Amino acid sequence: MKINSIYLGIICLLLSISCADEKKSDKESITIGKKKEKTITSKKDTEVPVMLDNKGVGPITSVSFTDEIDQKLAEQGAQLFKSKCVACHKAQQKFIGPPMAGIYKIRSPEWVMNMIMNPTEMVEKDPVAKALFKEYNNTIMINQNIPETEARAMVEWFRTLEQ
To answer: Is 0.90 surpassed by the pTM of this model?
Structure first.
């Protein structure tokens, strides 16, 4: 009986070592393509395209940023983000959903606002949203019926995370 327990322990140890080696070899790679697009391949072989000209699916077709950040609007956006989004998003790191820091290097402001305001239809119809859905373990972004004014405040706050 004692020998069986030892063999069972050795088998479990070998299995855990083989799984750990597998995870180490699945590192993230980035391939940069043409036309402001690049493809990010993760350990799950999910490709998330970077499409700066993609405005997404929804009511927002144009967002204009001024040269300077509107601090009052950004503060409002930070508070809204904290009250509505932190259960799934962190500003600086991946969590249940993607981080917001650097978002405008890979997404257009229109796309970001449409994703905030219209996540269900975005995941159904937008190629980037579909890829993110797969990348983040098929986790659905809840539609909180966020109005345009609140979404605009949040995207202004995201600009402060770029600096």
So the answer is: no
